[in-house]
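Supplementary Methods S3. Input chains for the assembly prediction are listed below.
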Amino acid sequence: MELLIKNGFVFDPINEINGEKMDIAIKNGKIVESVNEQRAKKIDASGLTVFPGGVDIHTHIAGAEVNTGRLMRPEDHIKDVVRKTPITRSGVGYSVPSTFTTGYRYSRMGYTTIMNPSMPPLEAKHTHEELNDTPMLDKASYPLLGDWWFVLEYLQKGDLAECARYVAWMMGTAKGYAIKIVNPGGLESWGFGRNVHSIDDQVPNFCITPREIMCGLAKVNQMLNMPHSIHLHTNNLGLPGNYATTLDTMRALEHVAAGDKPVAHITHLQFSSFAGDDWGTMRSGAEEIAKYINNHSHMTFDMGQVIFTDTTTMTADGPFEYTLYQLSGHKWVNGDVETETSGGIIPFHYKRNNAVNATQWSIALELALMVDDPWKMFMTTDHPNGGPFTAYPKIIAWLISKKARMATLKKCHKKAQKKSLIPSIKRELNLYDLAIVTRAGQAKALGLKNKGHLGLGADADVAIYNVNHEKIDIAKKYKTVRRAFSNAAYTIKDGEVVVKDGEILQHVDGRTIWLDVQTTEQAKIDEEMKRRFKEYWTVEYENYPVTDHYIKVPDPLTIRADV
Amino acid sequence: MIVLTPLRQFQYPVIAECINPDVFQGKSVAEIAPLEVWEGNRKKNLGDLVKIEEVASESLKVTLKGDFSEVRRVGMGMKNGEIVVIGNVGMHLGEKMEGGKIAVQGDVAGWAGSGMKGGFIEIFGNAGDYLASPYRGSSVGMNKGKIIVHGNVGSDVAVFLKGGVIRVQGNAGPFLGFRMRGGTVHIEKNVGNRVGACMTGGKIVVSGVLEDMMPTFTIDGVKAKVKIDESEKAVGPFYVFLGDLAETGNGKLFVSKNNNPHFEHYERFLQME
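Predicted structure tokens for the full assembly:
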């Protein structure tokens, strides 16, 4: 099928196209030089903004913890019920929407690729079953490897090559895309009711420190030539004063850096940028963090913006979720995933008139605006931890308009207002920057060569929004922009028009991307390993891998490793 | 005044949110007839199912005559006016109502007054389960208003209750006041077990028999009278229990002393102090 998008204002930062009026030609699901104008279906995009399809680097939309979140929050669903239509299936929202609803809602906002960031390998089958049922999007998952016993053992022995072979094996076994590390060392300690409090604390039973785990896995990541860097959730997350730990983490990783490619991605950075000694004196550490980021280029980040709403927090960071339970007293779930990781879920209501929550809201925006290079800092809410992804248009408004930020800040807790740096920040993102923080930058950091841009050969994932930057000043008319980004004028997925004016036109299955890492020598899968599976896992070795038939539309990416 | 009479026996549930004085206000019979209702999975007009008559009267009043026991959501979200049901009525009567008055001469099915925010419901027959309780999944209970039931009520009454008064002259089923946070419930006869499970606030008064007390309630004293609302008092004497301690709750459960001699052994905990 051929498609021609005519006369739109195209923003394609990877190819350095900044609002030029031009045509985009699509053939067989790819961007091409030109198509036959008579035969091609035409979309008149004059006066509209044309972006590459949205890419979300970090959003919890599938898997064991998401599903448990759904089970424990009926009150979240009853307020947001979605009826079926002749095209779409029924479902429920709000903070943990059902799989189909998740796909439709992302697509309506112009998103086409999303990354599910925490998949315990033991729960990988479940995760992929849910991803199969998440339509409209290309997706991938990051297996949680930071506290996996095999990783800890080989890193402790200093055998990076063997560790790398096991990680490569795991990518194929769990059908994963990147190495996810959550509170390194802390989750293993949590199995014994403990936690680590700095990057140099010892992990019980393993004689290893978080620093060694992070740096080790970052090196492993390089040895395997993985497209994405390690995806890191820092130690001490969500605790006052943790910005010092975050700075230590970033400094520790400096030694691993080589070349231009980032070595790590610190996710939901807002939750790792608290200063102060306790909740009473908690304030923003964004200034110190942003200063460091502006002077270094070995890492990328995403915001983890907080939205003032009732949401559900879920992370593999079991000890942090337990802390949240102690703060809120709400119903909670906490679990230990055998030899791999842990997990916790607790509903949380972020409130404007709560000084801590309002400061968190402010921190994320301060970080996004004070980090000068948009290629380093991406827009997320860490869905659903900071708020549901459906709030992205609100964040867009805050990023592009000082007026929008100030309007929200005015309604916040007085103490938080006083401490906030937002009144002093003048920067307003333009559409070019916005395209970076919502798609181009994320695709580049993920190493997705065919995503996040509209160059020749790229996947024909396009989002068209009803914004005319020549006619309106987006900073002043932020409400118009917010509306436009909530309901895309068109979303095009693999060359098919799937959304028009915020309505789903057809149901398409996205692909599941995973890494097939080719190592020169295979990981040793011997009797010893199988014995350990028998002893420590509830699942037999033979039943553990996610076999090919589990994935509806597989899209493996083959990479050649150095080991 | 509008009078509605069923044209036939309903075989399938009828969802009729439009039977509401606020909706009918200022409309003639011809305008009311085409209002949308669902019968089973079919969309129908109200006029297809019931006979609609207008009786000259100043007040904003709707009268339902006959068997409406399959008709659900009558008076949902109503703010003003009055509904009188001469007969039985179905589930979700007066759900989320904010004001006005509903009187039912017969029986009412489940979820009557669910999530109520104001107004008054009086039921002369029996009420079903989940009286004044939110629908499954929701945690938003009744927070204002008054319900009086002259007959019996089913199980799970006053779940998540936050405010308002419920008075039942008959018996009540189990799980009365589950997760209750405020408000007052008075049962004049007997109640089923697990009364006040997980309650953190509010007042439950049982004038009849309660067989078992939850182990997570502790005795606090004996009281002669308990205030139900401005005009009424329940006459005891009552044992006063506090709970649910499993939820570090501070709810009060008053149980008649004379009708519950099996709780006498709790009195020794009072004498110890």
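The radius of gyration of chain A is 22 Å. Chain A is about 35% helix and 20% strand.
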